């Protein structure tokens, strides 16, 4: 076994986790417990000095960051076609993946960890409330994508990283007091994706509950 995936349950590392399981890859899943601060311990910092997941180790090579890992796995398992082969369709899929990673994800971080961006409780509360509304709008954009995809997948005819990331992002909405069922097309899409065998194995390992919303 030459590959290792360092992941945290429920984090964006679910994306490569689901891809590896879907590909039937021989890899070792290594859990990093963020709530216990394991990302800051010397053992993990030796793997990724930035203290972030996901991290993919393949033999002597270490790869970090979602976009880099996804494109690497797409090249390593070409039969899976995680990204479209047509040049424009591939560019569009990467465009959406980058938006998920550099816009939707950081917006949620302002909701879930406002202390990273402000020092006072009052400002943190304001950041959390403001960004929860922004996040709801961004999920609306994903809802439109799911409606457009219909019975297919967000990146085309095959399951890929956009579908796994959409599952993560909609699930996170529960932490922002967003009911996932208010996005019916996206909620149906996420439930469909979660039932795919490889995705289901990743969900089971991470012990994920899809709907975290509590009225």
Reported by name, the CATH topology of the largest domain is Glutathione S-transferase Yfyf (Class Pi), Chain A, domain 2
Query: How far is the first residue's CA from the last residue's CA?
Result: 44 Å
Radius of gyration, in angstroms, nearest whole number: 17 Å
Give start-end ranges of low-pLDDT stretches. Answer: none
* CATH architectural label of the largest domain: Up-down Bundle
Biggest sheet, strands in spatial order? 2-1-3-4
What general outline do the C-alpha atoms trace?
globular
Give the helices and strands as they follow along the chain.
EHEHEEHHHHHH
Number of contiguous helices: 8
Name the quaternary structure: single chain
Strand content: 5-15%
Report the biggest beta sheet as strand number plus sense, adding barrel if it closes: 4 strands, mixed
Please tally the β strands and state the result. 4
How many structurally independent domains?
2
Q: Please identify the top-level CATH class of the largest domain.
A: Mainly Alpha
Give the helix proportion (percent range). Answer: 40-55%
Structural class, by secondary structure, is: alpha+beta
**Mean pLDDT reading:** 97
Topology:
Blueprint: E1 3-7, H1 14-23, E2 27-31, H2 42-45, E3 55-58, E4 61-64, H3 66-76, H4 87-112, H5 121-149, H6 161-172, H7 184-194, H8 197-206
Parallel strand pairs: 1-2
Antiparallel strand pairs: 1-3, 3-4
Helix pairs in contact: 1-3, 1-6, 1-8, 4-5, 4-6, 5-7, 6-7
């Amino acid at each position: 076994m030459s590959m290792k995936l360092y992941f945290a349950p429920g984090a964006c590392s679910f994306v490569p986790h689901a891809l590896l399981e879907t590909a039937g890859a021989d890899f070792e899943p290594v859990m990093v417990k963020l709530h216990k601060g394991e990302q800051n311990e010397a053992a993990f910092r030796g793997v990724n000095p930035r203290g972030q997941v996901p991290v993919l180790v393949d033999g002597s090579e270490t790869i970090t960051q979602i976009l880099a890992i996804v494109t690497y796995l797409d090249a390593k398992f070409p039969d899976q076609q995680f990204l479209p082969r047509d040049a424009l369709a591939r560019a569009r899929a990467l465009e959406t993946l980058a938006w998920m990673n550099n816009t939707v994800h950081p917006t949620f971080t302002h909701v879930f960890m406002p202390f990273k961006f402000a020092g006072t409780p009052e400002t943190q509360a304001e950041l959390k409330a403001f960004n929860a509304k922004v996040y709801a709008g961004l999920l609306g954009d994903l809802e439109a994508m799911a409606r457009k995809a219909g019975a297919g997948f967000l990146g085309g005819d095959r399951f890929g990283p956009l579908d796994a990331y959409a599952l993560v992002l909609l699930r996170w909405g529960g932490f922002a007091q967003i009911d996932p069922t208010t996005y019916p097309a996206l909620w149906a899409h996420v439930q469909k994706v979660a039932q795919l065998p490889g995705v289901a194995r990743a969900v089971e390992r991470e012990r994920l509950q899809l709907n975290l919303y509590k009225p």
